[in-house]
């Protein structure tokens, strides 16, 4: 057998092994995963020349895959969550573009970045805050302030497959920083929990978003990811509250510099 034929066969075998993984998301991929039609035409910043390898870490209530990708190999560990409330899709473009921007900034040697595409694909399809079981996933984590009396919070911590998948991912990654995309009806801002005041200030400086710590929001967040990680575990976590119903592309352009800055340092 010639050397050329051997190389071809090895390449074919590698492709077969990695068949479940996908390249950068196409228009059809995003539509199939429930990304709103208004956003589909805006995802133009993905670097399609570089492979994006997605891994399925679990499934939603209705069986949609929960997918993550890992970029870089540096000692700093950062987790990006593209969305957890289905009616807050403003982080979709940022999430699709982040890996390419991360590589362009040459952060691979300094940071290992884990990107969770969307933790609530059922809610994204339904345009609802909650998942298909009518549970607010960001109130279903095992924080000390979990509220078992509210049925919308799931009754018991991690009762939902989506919250369990994200929790297990956090346990594996052990992130030094978490950034989570949300959207606010009032105004955009950067929220933080735990020892993240300085990080939030830097994000604010680079993006123009005002800082609003959780203890100044005027409402409680029992069982939230911020409560679990920031308060209970002292892991810095930023909640990026983009403007509801705003252009996801404009949102990404506004936070791109700030996101890469806090991810990289």
Describe what this molecule looks like in 3D.
This protein has 265 residues and is of the alpha/beta class. The protein contains nine helices and seven strands. It has helices at 3-17, 27-32, 37-40, 92-104, 121-126, 161-173, 197-207, 225-232, 248-264, and strands at 55-59, 65-71, 76-81, 111-116, 177-184, 189-193, 237-243. It has a seven-stranded mixed beta sheet, with helices on both faces. A hairpin with a 5-residue loop joins β1 (55-59) and β2. α4 (92-104) crosses α9 (248-264) and α7 crosses α9. The longest helix is centred in the C-terminal third of the chain and has 17 residues, at 248-264. Mean pLDDT is 86; it is low at 1-48.
Q: Look at the structure and give the mean pLDDT.
A: 86
- Terminus-to-terminus distance: 51 Å
Q: Strand arrangement, largest sheet?
A: 1-2-4-3-5-7-6
User: In which range does the helix fraction lie?
Assistant: 25-40%
List segments where confidence is low: pLDDT < 50 over at least 5 consecutive residues.
1-48
Protein structure class: alpha/beta
Shape by Cα distribution: globular
Number of strands: 7
Number of helices: 9
Biggest β-sheet strands, sense, barrel: 7 strands, mixed
Radius of gyration based on Cα positions: 19 Å
User: Proportion of β residues?
Assistant: 15-25%
Return the string of H and E elements: HHHEEEHEHHEEHHEH
């Amino acid at each position: 057998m010639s050397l050329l034929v051997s190389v071809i066969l090895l390449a074919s075998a590698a492709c077969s092994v990695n068949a479940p993984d996908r390249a950068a998301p196409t228009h059809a991929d995003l539509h199939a995963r429930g990304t709103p039609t208004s956003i589909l035409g805006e995802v133009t910043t993905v670097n399609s020349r570089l492979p994006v390898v997605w891994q399925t870490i679990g499934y939603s209530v209705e069986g949609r895959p929960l997918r993550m990708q890992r970029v870089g190999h540096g000692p700093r560990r950062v987790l990006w969550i593209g969305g957890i409330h289905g009616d807050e899709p403003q982080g979709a473009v940022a999430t699709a573009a982040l890996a390419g921007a991360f590589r362009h900034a040459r952060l691979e040697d300094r940071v290992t970045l884990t990107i969770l595409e969307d933790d609530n694909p059922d809610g994204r399809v339904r345009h609802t805050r909650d998942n298909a079981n009518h549970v607010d996933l960001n109130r279903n984590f095992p924080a000390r302030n979990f509220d078992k009396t509210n049925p919308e919070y799931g009754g018991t911590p991690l009762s939902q497959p989506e919250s369990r998948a994200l929790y297990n991912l956090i346990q594996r990654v052990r992130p030094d920083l978490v950034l989570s995309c949300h959207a606010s009806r009032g105004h955009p801002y950067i929220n933080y929990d735990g020892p993240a005041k300085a990080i939030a200030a830097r994000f604010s400086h680079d993006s123009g978003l005002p800082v609003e710590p959780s203890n100044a929001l005027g409402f409680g967040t029992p069982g939230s990811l911020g409560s679990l990680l920031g308060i209970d575990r002292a892991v810095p976590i930023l909640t990026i509250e983009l403007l509801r119903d705003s252009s996801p592309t404009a949102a990404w352009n506004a936070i791109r510099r700030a996101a890469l800055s806090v991810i990289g340092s």
